[in-house]
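User: Okay, second chain of the day. Same drill as before: sequence in, structure tokens out.
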Amino acid sequence: MKAARVIRYDESLNPPQIPHYPPPQRRQRPQSKPRTNLHKTLALESLTKIGVNLCLAGVAIVTLLHQLPQQKQQEIKLQEINTEVNKVQARVNLLQDNLSRYFDPTTSSEVMQEQTHLVLPNHQEIVINETTKK
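Assistant: Same drill. Structure tokens below.
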């Protein structure tokens, strides 16, 4: 405990000086908003979120609807391209077969005969005229 301080003074003199201490301050509690305001705020926030999400969903649906015709056109183009690729692939296969035949040493004499219409010396060419046929 603290020792009390005794102040002695003469009454004829000035009154004693009492030390002035500020009164202890109470902590002020923040004033809470009424519950109805809190509920209204939460409801407004939720409605705003729902509204924004509905707008975004609407934009997404409209965008998808605009993309459907473009997708159909692209599918048609893809089918046309696939058809052309199949045609070209058949031609490529034929040319590859011919190429391997042309460079095959065993068939080189046959290919030369086909290309130049020349006959080997040990072969005879036979020509049939249709006028001699009866």
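Residues 7 and 17 are 9 Å apart (CA to CA).

User: Thanks, on to the next one.
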